[in-house]
Amino acid sequence: MDGSYLDNNATTMPAPEVLDAMDQAGRELWANPSSVHRFGQQVRQRVELARQSVAGLIGAAPRELVFTSGGTESANLATFGLTPTPAGLTLITTGVEHAAVREPAEHVGKQGGRVVWLAVDSAGRVELDGLSEASERAIADKDEGRGVVLVSIQWANNETGVIQPIPAIAEAVALAKATARERGRRIKLLLHVDATQAVGKLPVDVDLVGIDLLTFSAHKFHGPKGVGALWLRRGVRLSPLQRGGPQERERRGGTENTTGIIGMGVAADLARQFLDTPQNTVAIQALRDRLERGVVSALPDTVVNSRDAPRLWNTTSLGFPGVEAEAVLLGLSEKGICASAGAACSSGSLEPSPVLLAMGIPEPVAHGSVRFSLSRYTRPSEIDRALEAVPAVVGRLMRTMPMG
After folding, report:
1. Is residue 164 very low, low, confident or very high in pLDDT (cuts 50, 70, 90)?
2. Which of 206, 182, 181, 179 is nearest to 62 (CA)?
């Protein structure tokens, strides 16, 4: 595209190698992978090779991986597949989660389950003392042998890029499990991590971290849309949300999206190669930092949300007090700059981001916050164009459209 595409947390451009593999699969590998004939089994072999590639990206065993339609379905399966009804679930989460976790949590509460909303600090990071206390209390409140306690925390925030301390969170959950065992309680306590913004951008090894379920989506790391995955540690039992076939080891019925899965496998291999060279992310973070510095220099009132917290190398959330983010986005779009106001799923809403509000960010800043997110294909010239456009658009709005 012409202009500057700085909305990569919404979706990334499919890598050329991914498109080539999918084109070849669509033309030559269109048989049903569940068929027993040779043609079908050729497709099955390619699906399983892709499963190995995707599993390798997160340090998992291939048999532990369930292919889905994307991150939202994966998160819903991880939440609602653990108990016969939501009423049997205690869900511990935060107000800074993506809607794919936040809205299912709200549904759990409406259906008779219990939801505990953890506090976060001003950068949006989980307060570990609160997590430990909530986990132990949830275990104590459960009847012996009944129900599931699920802690659901994102690895990296889609709006601010803030990285949660997942190893420390996993350690806190493990300690709560150990305490429950010492007290003779056999309540099931599990940790789900929404890694949609982390996989392909950060080194992820589920075996080392000590979590139970992890969800992610191909189109966030230059793969195709419409395909994602749920990883669940061996021994975690999960009931399918959709039935009608034995696919994915009877955890997700329905003929697999073979073309998408093959594309996801190629994207996973490319992401591993990219992450194997740390200088790759350093170079893109330098572009992100140059964008931040340039905008703040031109517009000194700009707020860099979560500036001092550990963040993804590709993400910045800039708050422009006194203007509406939607107006900024429209002005930038006219100049060929693509950005977003928080999650793409909620674009068009005039309400300030619930994520930013949960962090305690003042409404005037939250209303005027715009997310810029880069990718491994972002060019320096795109940052140059943004540095010309952002001060011009925001400056004009500050002069002509001040908020009351």
Report:
1. very high
2. 206
**CA-CA distance, 241 to 291, in Å (whole number)?**
43
Q: How many residues does the chain have?
A: 404
Q: Rounded to a whole number, what is the largest CA-CA distance in the chain? A: 69
Backbone angles phi, psi at 359, to 5 degrees: -80, -5
| Known active-site residue 345 | yes
pLDDT digits (tens, 9 = 90+) for 283-311: 999 999 999 999 999 999 999 999 999 99
pLDDT tens-digit map of 185-231: 777 899 999 999 999 999 999 988 889 999 999 999 999 999 999 99
Which residues 6+ apart lie within 8 Å of 12 measured at CB?
219, 220, 221, 222, 223, 375, 377
Q: Torsion angle of alpha carbons 241, 114, 103, 253, nearest 10°?
A: -10
- Mean pLDDT over residues 266-287, rounded? 97
Residue 14: pLDDT over 80: yes
Joined together, the tokens standing for residue 58 give 């997160």
In DSSP terms, 370 is beta-bridged to 318
CB neighbours of 232 closer than 8 A, spacing ≥ 6? 64, 66, 78, 212, 213, 238
Kindly report, residue by residue over 22-79, the tens digit of the pLDDT.
999 999 999 999 999 999 999 999 999 999 999 999 999 999 999 999 999 999 999 9
Report helix, strand and coil shares of the chain as percent, to nearest 5.
45, 15, 40
d(CA 302, CA 13): 29
Do the beta carbons of residue 330 and residue 290 sit within 8 Å?
Answer: no
Entry pTM: 0.94
Strand partners, 315: 373
Could you say which of 327, 345, 392, 398 is catalytic?
345
Q: Which two tokens stand for residue 138?
A: 């949830």
Cα distance between residue 262 and residue 375, in whole Å: 22
Closest among 197, 79, 92 to 135, alpha carbons compared: 92
Using CA atoms, how far residue 282 sits from 187, 270, 312, 335, 349, in Å, is 43, 17, 11, 28, 34
Gap between the Cα atoms of 318 and 296, Å rounded: 9
For residue 404, the model assigns a pLDDT of 46
What's the CA dihedral at 266, 271, 230, 203 to 10 degrees? 160
DSSP code at position 114: E
Across the chain, mean pLDDT equals 93
